[in-house]
């Protein structure tokens, strides 16, 4: 591992993302010993004029005890908070960034006599509108200058633009300042335990290799449901909608991992090359394969215009034009204010040919990977119902993480991804061409929605979403399981 002092600079330190995700993730990395007091310092930077202690007080409440850590939580919190220093300044003027650089350099000087190279990680917990000026300031005033080596890396979060054109513009602006290996585009779904498991499942198990294709799979659903609405984020959400907020990034990344070919190796470039190929094989979306919804009451939020057509729900059928997937619909569903909170992948297999047990009626074979809550994967299969009769029933082979891995702490997505940025592993980050290909898929549809040509239909909060969505999934080939027990005729 690399040595030398590490400065983690959180820009937008007083904002929501930093408080709720970035600092807590750093805290857990600290508690588990992945970052250590002797070689790390954390700098918060934002416009608000507050003291180091003010920032520490704002963060404190979000640092939750970590399951399984033996040391005292209170003691760890106070030691961790001591690692944080605050610098205030604007995002587009040099003064603030000069003082930030001065603080970082002083810290490095105090350490370098004993430790070596310096590493600077800039985490932009900021709205994308300020990425270009902030990157410019970092490049001009805050780069790593150590003669002993090290690096400067930039972490950015979605939304990367609103469509292909704006995303390309943003990429070009950042790309002029930093090389691709310095840029870490976070999609936090790539840090989730079961998303990280997808490649292992597919490529390390003989079971799946021969089955994972159009000959055996009828359809694949990738579903995201939330049981709450936009809750104070209406202003932001209305600019983006569910497709930009969830589907174009999180669910499409999951689709890539489900559909990609086996990469040549686990090198980040090899993995990302395969993901790009999947994205480039997705056919243009047909309006007849889209159902949009907006939950009733969404426009009650004063920051949302009354006539908003922004979807809070979407079901979209994506079709991949390649040898493996031709004819297999990928049914992507995402919605807010629904009846449950769940994210899962549901691989539904074709009916058994020459069936003698009416197994289709009991439910097709399915392989379900539940990303959250309660990580699990299970296979639905037809078995003999235990007992003297030869009845059959659908049952499950079930691997529930809560039971199987009781003693294991499943890390938060952000913890893992921040650790990857420190280690310099870009496998779980979105490359520029991947981002472009993802926007190419959705931009024409998004423009039609923005022009009001595709409408969102109302649905009741707490429901399954608009009725048409289930119908669309069924039309695409999904067959509902009814839990039927088959009793053979006597
Ligand atoms: C974010 C979206 O990227 O992901 C939110 O902006 C959404 O709208 C969140 O609630 C869901 O993340 P998770 O990890 O809770 O599924």
Describe this structure in words.
With 490 residues, the protein is of the alpha/beta class. The chain has helices at residues 16-31, 52-60, 73-81, 94-115, 131-141, 164-177, 193-196, 198-203, 234-259, 268-280, 359-362, 401-404, 413-423, 432-450, 467-476; strands at residues 5-11, 40-46, 84-88, 118-124, 150-157, 183-186, 217-225, 290-295, 313-319, 329-335, 342-349, 366-372, 376-384, 392-400, 456-459. The strands form two sheets. The chain has a nine-stranded mixed sheet with strand order 14-13-12-11-7-10-9-8-15, with helices on both faces. Strands 3-2-1-4-5-6 form a six-stranded parallel sheet, with helices on both faces. Helix 5 links the parallel strand 4 (118-124) and strand 5. The longest helix has 26 residues, at 234-259. The chain is globular. The termini are far apart. Residues 188, 226, 245, 343 line the site of 6-O-phosphono-beta-D-glucopyranose (BG6).
Q: What is the structure about, briefly put?
A:
By secondary structure, the protein is of the alpha/beta class. 36% of the residues lie in helices and 21% in strands.
- What is the distance, rounded to the nearest whole angstrom, between the alpha carbons of the first and last residues? 69 Å
- Oligomeric state of the chains in view: single chain
- The chain-level structural class is alpha/beta
Present as ligands are: 6-O-phosphono-beta-D-glucopyranose
Largest sheet, strands/sense/barrel: 9 strands, mixed
- What's the helix count? 15
Strand content: 15-25%
């Amino acid at each position: 591992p690399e040595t030398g002092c590490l400065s983690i600079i959180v820009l937008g330190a007083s904002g929501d993302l930093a408080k709720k995700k970035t600092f807590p993730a750093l805290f857990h990395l600290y508690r588990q010993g992945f970052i250590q007091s002797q070689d790390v310092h954390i700098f918060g930077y934002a416009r608000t004029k507050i003291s180091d202690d003010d920032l520490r007080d704002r963060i404190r409440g979000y640092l939750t005890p970590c399951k399984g850590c033996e040391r005292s939580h209170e003691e760890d919190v106070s030691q961790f908070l001591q690692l944080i220093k605050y610098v205030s300044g604007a995002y587009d003027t040099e003064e603030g960034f000069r003082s930030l650089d001065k603080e970082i350099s002083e810290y490095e000087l105090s350490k370098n006599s004993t430790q070596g190279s310096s590493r600077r990680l800039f985490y932009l917990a900021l709205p994308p509108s300020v990425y270009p000026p902030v990157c410019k300031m970092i490049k001009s005033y805050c780069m790593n200058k150590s003669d002993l080596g090290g690096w400067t890396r930039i972490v950015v979060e979605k939304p990367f633009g609103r469509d292909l054109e704006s995303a390309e513009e943003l990429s070009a602006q950042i790309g002029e300042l930093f090389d691709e290996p310095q840029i870490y585009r976070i999609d936090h779904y790539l840090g989730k335990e079961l998303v990280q498991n997808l490649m292992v499942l597919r490529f390390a198990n003989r079971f799946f290799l021969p089955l994972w294709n159009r000959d055996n799979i009828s359809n694949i659903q990738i579903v995201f449901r939330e049981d709450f609405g936009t809750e104070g984020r209406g202003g932001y959400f209305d600019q983006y909608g569910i497709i930009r907020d969830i589907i174009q990034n999180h669910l499409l990344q999951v689709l890539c991992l489900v559909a990609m070919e086996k990469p040549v190796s686990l090198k980040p470039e090899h993995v990302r090359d395969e993901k790009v190929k999947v994205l480039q094989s997705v056919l243009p979306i047909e309006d007849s394969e889209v159902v949009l919804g907006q939950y009733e009451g969404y426009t009650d939020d004063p920051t949302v215009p009354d006539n908003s057509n922004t979807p809070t729900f979407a079901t979209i059928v994506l079709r991949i034009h390649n040898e493996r997937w031709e004819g297999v619909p990928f049914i992507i569903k995402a919605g807010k204010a629904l009846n449950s909170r769940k994210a899962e992948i549901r691989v539904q297999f074709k009916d058994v040919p020459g069936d003698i047990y009416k197994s289709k009626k009991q439910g097709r074979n399915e392989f379900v990977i539940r990303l959250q809550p309660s990580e699990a994967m299970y296979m639905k299969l037809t078995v003999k119902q235990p007992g003297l009769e030869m009845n059959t029933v659908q049952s499950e082979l079930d691997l529930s993480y809560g039971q199987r891995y009781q003693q294991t702490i499943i890390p938060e997505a952000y913890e893992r991804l921040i650790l990857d940025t420190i280690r310099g592993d870009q496998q779980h980050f979105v490359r520029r061409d991947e981002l472009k290909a993802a926007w190419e898929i959705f931009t024409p549809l998004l423009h039609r929605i923005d022009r009001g040509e595709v409408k969102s239909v109302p649905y009741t909060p707490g429901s399954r979403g608009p009725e048409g969505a289930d119908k669309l999934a069924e039309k695409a080939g999904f067959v509902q399981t009814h839990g039927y027990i088959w009793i053979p005729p006597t």
